[in-house]
Amino acid sequence: MSEKRILIASLLKPINDTRMFEKLGLSLSKLSGVQVHIIGYKAPLPPAPTNVFFHPAFNFERVSLSRLTAQRTYKQLLENIKPDLLIACTHELLAASRSYCLKYGAKLMYDVQENYALNLTSQRNYPLPARAFLANLVRKTEKKTAPFISHFLLAERSYAQELPFLAKGKYKILENKYKPNARYDTPATPVSLANGPLKLLYSGTIATLYGVFEAVSLAEQLHDMDASISLTIIGYSPDKQTLKHLISLIQGKPFIRLVGGNQLVPHEQILQLIRESHVGLLPYQPNPSTERCIPTKLYEYMAYALPMLVQHNSIWQSILAEKKAGLMIDFKTERPSDILLRIRQQDFYTSGIPQNIYWEHEELKLLEIIKSALTDC
C-alpha cells in the first residue's frame, strides 16, 4: 500500500511555525505509512523526521501583489505533491484547496487558528472602510468552502460559539498547549521572587494590540525603583511603524533589550529566554479579537514555571488563580510600586506545574481524527 500524503499549508506562517510544524506536523509524522508535507513562508529548516518534507514557497511583504500571485505557486505545489489530505491553516488557501480536492477526490480540513473576520473588524490593521469589506469577503469564503470540509480543527474553545459556518459533529478543539522538546525539563516549584534581580520578558508578536508599549512603560517605572529590573522583548513585528516607534522609545535604555523585531525569531530562542526570565508579561489591550482566546505564551510560561503579569481578563484570571501562575493587573492604572510589592510577596506554582497545559492530550485527539480520515482516502 502506497504512503498517504498529508499536506499542511499556510500563506503567512513560516514553515517552522510552532503549531503548523511542531504540533500538527510532528504529531502526524508519528503515523505509519504517511508523508507529511509542509508549505509555508520561507524560514530556516528545522530538524525533522525523514517523512516530513518542507516547501518554503512564500516570501513577500504582507501587503503586496506577490501575496496574490502566491496562489498560483500554491496550486502548482498541489499538483506536484498530490496530497490525499489537505489541512489548510488559513482562509486564503481554502478556495484553491477545495478545487484541488474536488478534482482529485482528496479530503480537506481547516485548521482555524484565528477568527479572521472578527480580527479584521476589531483590529486596526487596515483603513476603516476596508475592514468590513475584507471581513465579509473572508466569511463568504469560509461559508462557501464549509460544506466541502471534512473536519474543522479549532485552536480556541470560543470559536465553537463564534464561527457561524461550523457544522455539528464536524469540529474538534485542539488548543495551542505546550509541546515539550528534547531539552525540556520540568522546572522546580514553588517559585519565589522575594529577592534578587527581576528579568521581565515580552515574547511573541510585537504589536500595539498585544501591549508592547505598556510592557516598556512598566519596565521603565519598575527600573526607576529597582535598577536590577530589566526587560527583554523578543519576537517579530509585522508593522514597520510600530517597530520604528519601539526602537526610538528604548534607545538609550540599556535595561531594555530587543531581540528580532524586523525578522522572525526561532521558537527555541524564545523558549531559552523563557527559561532565563523571572516574570512574563501579557499586557494585551482589551479587544474583541483576543478577549476569549488563550495566548499560546500563557501555556509556555506555565510550562517553565514563569510567573506572569497579565492584563485583567476573566478567562485568564481563572487559569492564573487555579495554578497560582501569576497576577492579574491593569497595566495602565495600577501603581508600579504595588505591582512590585505583590511580585515580591507571593509564591507562585505552589502546586507544581499543571499537567493539562501540555500538547499530549491534544495530539491524541488529532491522531484519532486523521486516522479516521485517511481510511477513507
TrEMBL record:
GO terms for molecular function: glycosyltransferase activity. Residues 195-332 form the Glycosyl transferase family domain. The keyword Endoplasmic reticulum does not apply. Keywords: Transferase. Pfam families: Glycos_transf_1. It comes from the Bacteria. The keyword Transferase applies. Signal peptide: none annotated. This is Glycosyltransferase. It comes from Pontibacter oryzae.
